[in-house]
Design brief:
The chain is of the alpha+beta class. It contains 29 helices and 33 strands. Helix 3 (about 360-370) packs antiparallel against helix 4 (about 375-385) and helix 12 runs antiparallel to helix 13 (about 525-535).
Length: about 850
């Protein structure tokens, strides 16, 4: 439970505290503080009898007949000696300029706080209540009501005289009254009435539920939520009443308004006061409990509850027990609940104490979260409401959160939170790093250190790197990879790594890390040596990135041993930096690597490495025979005699056959195919490629006594050599496998050739006819002859300047034109005329297509 801490405690209070000592995990809705300063001084000598609240000030009435005006901090601003006995009630209008006071000796005073107008009257009975019209400041609203044995309404007439009328009497003392707008609500011993000042009608009577309670000991509590909603609390019962307009058809002799009870429910304790809070209610309750030790009933601390009204019940939102001074002696009637509508302030008034309850703000919410050690929620709440919080700083909450996590041993979470909480504050970062160092948790904070904005002192980063270097090589290597090299003194870390390598010189992690450090320090030569020693995949990237080709000229063998494919690609891509000659020289003692390099060079460009083609013959023969024949076919620079010698020495038949063929010795090549390979199909294919009649004759002669060869020839020879030549030479009686099928194939091939020839002939004839028709259509077209045309013989205009003169023009289909007299006379043997120009250029004769005469 949230408590307003008291300065005085009694034995009975302590017993009450024991029952409340377990605090709820639910956050309270309100916070409490004592109204002190002048109030403390007043209540040391006097007792509070009543109080009313205005937005600007407070008015307190005491048992000794004094009325004090107070500011919201409890400081006395004015004092009025009204009566020698208890002040029963004080009423203020909405403007706060007029006050009404009534006391136990029957005195009633209504006066202006800033004006001279006054009303004084002393009645013959105690006046329990008074209420001035909320709009009393207006001339037309100079009204107030008083209540003792009867309820009187006082109005000032036009002559400035006060007249009174009785609104109600005969049902006991009037003990409570509230005026809102045009409606006056009051309570007597029988129930609650509402009077409409405008229509001069009483519009309802709400009877009291529990008549067993003494109305003087358990008075009714009234409050207006708005101008038409009245809340009634009496005993343990709460009723919410709504004033509504009656329909004109229902009026008759009834009041123009009526009251509907929209909610009604019971509470656990006796009600001492009510106040609205948005759509909820604040209820001050008087509590009696039975002691477990003595089994006697005692007065417990009053409670302030926030409840959510429902139609027939209510839901408790929060409940706070209040430790007010002297609560052990107070009765239900001694407590009052007043409130300020504008600021949601609630004043719990008792004879010896006044406690102010107010809604908790975001600072209070954060206070509660911090008290409950809910730091993350507190941090989130502060970030969301950073413009509204006044007492807290996000940074302070964050630092407290980090300290809390460290105390719990959650070092990784604490380190991770540093990123968000410390932000760009380098000084705080360095402070936290030293704090983590003190508890031996530098490793925990290392992943989260800032690396750009801000940058901490180099000593901080070096301290963490040394910590990892002493205990975790892999973690050290990770930090070196992730941290930029300018965060720390590189030479210091290099020396530290080298010192550790003296103890463990083969540690690959340290060697690799040292290479990275050398790279940061632009000491690429040392880095390259380490990478090559480790055969690390990043060696090629290092060479490319930092253009280290001058440093690898004597390390080509190491690179090739590590990854020959990547090394060759790199060397070939950078021939301008490392020449082919240099690479070949470096690989002289490693012919197998030399071959890999030259082979890939040849694949890229057949001519770049032509000076090494002779060498490559031996390299292919030794290390890569499958690619020897393709090399011989593609190379135009290798010496054939040398190649033939090597192939014959190694008995490479196919390569020898190719070389013999390329050197023009086709018969020797064919002989090797037939005698060495015994492959009739290859022999036939070779003969086809050479397309040499003598070669076919040699093949037939070699095959004539070999039936399998004859079968192969019969199956394939038909399209190149007349099969009859072979068939005539076959000895009678020789058994030839699949002879029938071979003969059938020969006949089929022959028929196919005939069909192909006939098809080709038809196509040729059709094409010729089509072209002839096209030529005929073209020659039938006219030819334009105008002044721009010239005679191709005399080069003068083809048309005479004088159109009246007779002329004769010959135009050929080739579009050349001549004067007829410029053409040679046709001979008797060849009467046709041809274009002189086209005939001279062997373009074919053009015949005259048109002769123009005039």
């Amino acid at each position: 439970m949230a408590e307003a801490e008291g300065q005085e405690t009694e034995s009975l209070e302590e017993s009450t505290d024991e029952s409340e000592e377990e605090e709820s995990e639910e956050e309270p809705k309100l916070k409490y503080e004592r109204l002190s300063n002048g109030v403390t001084e007043i209540l040391q000598k006097d007792a509070a009898g009543c109080m009313t609240v205005h937005d600007k000030f407070l008015a307190l009435g005491t048992h000794y007949g004094k009325v004090y005006l107070l500011d919201v901090q409890g400081n006395i601003t004015q004092k009025f000696d009204v009566s020698p006995v208890k002040i029963n009630q004080i009423s203020l209008d909405e403007s706060g300029e007029h006050m009404g006071v009534c006391s136990e000796d029957g005195k009633v005073q209504v006066f202006g706080l800033y004006s001279g107008e006054e009303f004084h009257e002393t009645f013959d009975c105690p006046i329990k209540i008074i209420a001035v019209n909320p709009h009393f400041v207006r001339t037309s609203c100079k009204q107030f009501v008083t209540g003792g044995k009867k309820l009187l309404l006082f109005e000032r007439s036009w002559m400035s005289r006060w007249k009174s009328c009785v609104l109600h009497e005969g049902e006991g003392n009037i003990r409570s009254v509230k005026w809102r707008g045009h409606l006056i609500a009051w309570a007597n011993n029988m129930g609650v009435k509402i009077f409409d000042v405008t229509s001069k009608q009483r519009i309802t009577n709400v009877p009291r539920d529990d008549i067993s309670l003494r109305p003087d000991m358990y008075p009714c509590s009234l409050c207006w939520k708005d101008s038409v909603t009245l809340i009634i609390g009496w005993g343990t019962s709460v009723k919410i009443c709504s004033v509504k307009e009656r329909h004109a058809s229902e009026m008759r002799d009834l009041p123009s308004r009526y009251v509907e009870i929209v909610s009604q429910f019971e509470t656990e304790f006796y009600i001492s006061g009510l106040a609205p809070l948005c759509d909820q209610l604040v209820v001050l309750s008087y509590v009696k409990e039975v002691s477990e030790k003595t089994e006697r009933e005692y007065r417990a601390r009053p409670r302030l509850d926030i409840i959510q009204p429902l139609p027939e019940t209510c839901e408790e939102i929060s409940s706070d027990a209040l430790t007010v001074r002297g609560f052990q002696e107070n009765e239900c009637r001694d407590y009052h609940l007043e409130y300020s509508e504008g600021e949601s302030l609630f004043y719990i008034v008792s004879p010896r104490d006044i406690v102010v309850a107010k809604e908790r703000d975001q600072d209070d919410h954060i206070d509660w979260l911090l008290e409950k050690k809910k730091y993350e929620e507190a941090l989130m709440a502060a970030e969301i409401s950073q413009k509204n919080i006044k007492r807290h700083k996000i940074l302070d909450i964050g630092l407290a959160y980090i300290n809390h996590l460290v105390e719990k041993g959650e070092y990784d979470i604490a380190a991770r939170k540093c990123q968000k909480i410390l932000g760009k504050n380098a000084a705080l970062w360095e402070y936290e790093v030293y704090k983590f160092k003190e508890i031996g948790q530098l490793k925990a904070i290392s992943p989260y250190l800032p690396r750009g904005d801000p940058i901490l002192k180099p000593l901080i980063y070096e301290m963490i790197l040394h910590e990892f270097l002493e205990s975790d090589y892999e973690g050290f290597a990770t930090l070196i990879r992730e941290w930029p090299g300018d965060l720390y003194n590189n030479s210091v870390i290099v020396q530290a790594v080298r010192d550790h390598l003296k103890k463990d010189s083969q540690n690959r992690t340290l060697l690799k890390t040292l290479a990275e450090l050398y790279t940061y320090d632009k000491n690429y030569g040392n880095a390259l040596e380490i990478y090559l020693t480790l055969r690390h995949k990043d060696v090629f990237q290092l060479i490319h990135k930092h253009n280290l080709f001058s440093s690898i000229k004597d390390k080509i063998v190491l690179l090739m041993d590590f990854d020959s494919e990547k090394a060759v690609d790199m060397l070939l891509d950078n021939e301008d930096k490392i020449s082919i000659k240099k690479v070949v020289e470096e690989l002289e003692d490693r012919p197998e690597l030399q071959h890999v390099y030259l082979h890939k060079l040849f694949k890229r460009d057949h001519h770049k490495g032509q000076r090494y083609h002779e060498k490559q013959i031996s390299l292919y023969a030794e290390y890569d025979r499958p690619n020897l024949l393709p090399f011989l076919r593609d190379s135009t620079h290798c010496p054939l005699e040398k190649a033939l010698e090597i192939c014959q020495q190694r008995n490479f038949v196919e390569e020898t056959i190719y070389l013999l063929s390329r050197m023009g010795n086709s018969r020797s090549a064919l002989k090797m195919i037939t005698e060495e390979l015994h492959d009739v199909d290859k022999a036939i294919e070779f003969a086809k490629e050479q397309d040499d009649g003598e070669l076919w004759e040699d093949l037939i002669l070699y095959s004539i006594d070999k039936p399998p060869f004859i079968t192969g020839l019969l199956n394939n020879i038909g399209t190149h050599v007349d099969p009859i030549l072979l068939i005539h030479r076959i000895k009678e009686g020789m058994e030839i496998p699949n002879l029938r099928d071979s003969l059938v194939k020969i006949l089929q091939d022959y028929n196919l050739q005939i069909l192909l020839r006939e098809g080709c002939k038809k196509i040729l004839v059709a094409d010729s006819l089509s072209l002839l028709k096209r030529m005929h259509r073209t020659q039938m077209k006219g030819v334009l002859v105008d002044e721009e045309n010239i005679c191709e013989s005399c080069l003068s205009p083809i048309l005479p300047s004088d159109a009246a003169k007779p002329f004769s023009v010959v135009a050929f289909h080739c579009r050349h034109m001549f004067h007829k007299e410029c053409l040679p006379m046709p001979s008797m043997n060849s009467p046709a005329q041809f274009c002189n120009i086209c005939s001279a250029k062997h373009r074919g004769p053009g015949s005259a297509i048109l002769e123009l005469k005039k």
